[in-house]
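Rotation project, supervised by the postdoc (A.L.). Task for the rotation student: set up a whole-complex structure prediction and record inputs and outputs verbatim in this book. Inputs entered:
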Amino acid sequence: MALEHLFQGSALNAVDAKGRVSIPAFLRSVIERRGDARTIVLAKHEAFPALSAYDPGYAALKHSKLERLLEKEETSAQAQLEYQQRNLMAFAATEEVPYDSSGRILMPPMMRRKGEIADLALFLGTGETFQIWNPELLLADKRIPEDLKDIARFRLEERRGS
Amino acid sequence: MALEHLFQGSALNAVDAKGRVSIPAFLRSVIERRGDARTIVLAKHEAFPALSAYDPGYAALKHSKLERLLEKEETSAQAQLEYQQRNLMAFAATEEVPYDSSGRILMPPMMRRKGEIADLALFLGTGETFQIWNPELLLADKRIPEDLKDIARFRLEERRGS
DNA sequence: CTGTAACCCATAGAATCCCATTGTATCCCG
DNA sequence: CGGGATACAATGGGATTCTATGGGTTACAG
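Outputs recorded:
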């Protein structure tokens, strides 16, 4: 898999009283260059206390990969079960949300809880996908490189300053 | 097989006194984008104590998938038998039900029994199809990943809370 | 008749759209 | 190169639409 357009950059946006968040324009432009959807898929990140996000086309790609894997394997009961489990996680545990003409999504309450997102959302491009963090949790995570935390701190100051 | 529109997300809806259930709008939109039917096909899930559901067009696809699976195996008596069994489940043991203008189906009594659906129906998108669970049975099933159970618990709380 | 299914209507709450504001980045032209 | 004009991004608030759900009424079959 070699995607042409990659997510990169960072931004810190507010979650308003209705639960709306603007998806940074530079991430939206990648989504719209990858396909013509104005939609993002949200999932709990597998390792971090954050959300993972991508365009719907990427989800389909992931899915067809799983399918091929299954057809290749022997169809043992064990393989079947693992397939079912992965499929459930990949689709039931994710939500697809459209963004409106002003580039905002309504953060689904479940995802907001899973990602522990409060009133600020830190967007981090990571190539094929991007992440959405509660900035405080990122700063508190020992696994995060200091240089990245500096970026988070900068975004926080930047916002306070204005 | 590469379906364009995939079922994803989760929702917990009530089964009312008449046996009616709303199919979540985000699942209906996939059905209607795949074809122009306002109908779903219900079947007992092959592995879980739940129902499997999809649009009528998908049934044909499922059939060819089974065929291919059979051709791949040597046609041992065992494989033949499994094929016959699955084919019966896939076609004889299904019901096609239309949903009305408000997006509700009347859950057929047999399916309700087969899926052990009580007064709450948990909808789980799984890509090509979606599943309908009694949430309590999902929580009790050892094969279901804990992260997915969290989602079921969240949906239950969400409903109680409001 | 009588129970059941299809249809119609009503409603509360949530999601979505629309418009307005503000700050910032970009452009353009002298 | 400077500085004003312009376009766009992020955000707030109100109005509108949609969703899920309950209840009633009619159509129909056994």
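Student's summary: Residues 53 and 63 of chain A are 15 Å apart (CA to CA).
Supervisor addendum: Strands of chain A lie at 10-14, 20-22, 39-44, 51-54, 94-98, 104-106, 120-125, 130-133.
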